[in-house]
Amino acid sequence: MEKLPKIGLPILIIIVLTIVFISKSTITIGSGEAGVLYKTFGGGVVTDEPPLGEGFHLVAPWNKVIVYEVRQQEVFEKMQVLSSNGLEIKLDASAWFQPDYAKLGLLHQQKGENYVARILLPTIRSAARSVVGRYTPEQLYSSKRDVIQKEIYEETKKIVEDQFIQLNEVLVRDVTLPPTIKEAIERKLKQEQESLEYEFKLTKAQKEAERQKIDAEGKAIANQILSASLTDKILKEKGIEATLELAKSPNAKVVVVGSGKDGLPLILGNQ
């Protein structure tokens, strides 16, 4: 009985060591994540093999796994940049990005886990300063927001794609101008709108006047043609036709053909 504890202790130690070994040798990668393997005795960061994907993995206890989120992420940035005429513009932007999955080992080895603050954000700020500096505050406020958004995206992507970062989109969410500049631009835009409205009304009135003139000229020409075609003979013929139509009326009357003025029929009634 005294030997049992002596025999059981080594077994207990083996069991504990086995549990520790297994716990140190396994890792579970979650959804939307990937792992970079670091071999302590095998050359450090593994860059020539795909990263560890989602699920359960067995890893030697002396090695390490650094887990990265590889799904699309969003980072926000507020910047103060200068327009083409030197005025300070506040820009509120965000970027959609994710690490280059196939090159995750290189990203960890060369840029580190803090790659967003170290690489992505400085590049966005640099691109924003470069792009906004090409435009006036008026252009930034009105018609060029989509253009500068596209240009910031293209300039940022050109740099970060060589830094093992996949840039999906850059969004310019807000452009804030100095209050005095904003008010001046709004007044100018309002005046331009009123000018366009006035020009539209003026053009409409001119077209209506032209239409009425053409209509009047057409009626005048038609009257001239009609007057030229109404000879005495035609007028007499029309008079006879009209008199004969009246004669068909049920009212009592006497029609004397050729007895009226200019030889037109004469209608005699009982009044």
Brief overview, please?
With 271 residues, the protein is α+β, with helices and mostly antiparallel strands. It has helices at residues 3-25, 104-110, 115-132, 137-141, 145-160, 179-229, 232-247, and strands at residues 26-29, 33-39, 44-45, 55-58, 64-69, 73-82, 88-99, 165-176, 253-256, 266-269.
Tell me the number of structural domains. 3
Distance between the termini: 157 Å
The value of Rg in angstroms is 47 Å
Number of strands: 10
Q: From N to C, what is the helix and strand string?
A: HEEEEEEEHHHHEHHEE
Tell me, what's the shape? elongated
| CATH architecture title of the largest domain | 2-Layer Sandwich
For this structure, the CATH topology of the largest domain is Tetrahydropterin Synthase, Chain A
Explain how this protein is built:
- The chain has helices at 3-25, 104-110, 115-132, 137-141, 145-160, 179-229, 232-247; strands at residues 26-29, 33-39, 44-45, 55-58, 64-69, 73-82, 88-99, 165-176, 253-256, 266-269.
- The mean pLDDT is 80.
- It folds into 3 domains: 3-69, no CATH class; 73-177, Band 7 domain (Tetrahydropterin Synthase, Chain A, 2-Layer Sandwich); 232-269, no CATH class.
- The strands form 4 sheets. The protein has a 3-stranded antiparallel sheet. A 3-stranded antiparallel sheet has the order 6-7-8.
- Helix 3 (115-132) crosses helix 5 (145-160).
- It is an alpha+beta fold and 271 residues long.
- Keywords: Membrane, Transmembrane, Transmembrane helix.
- It is a single-pass membrane protein.
- This is Prohibitin family protein.
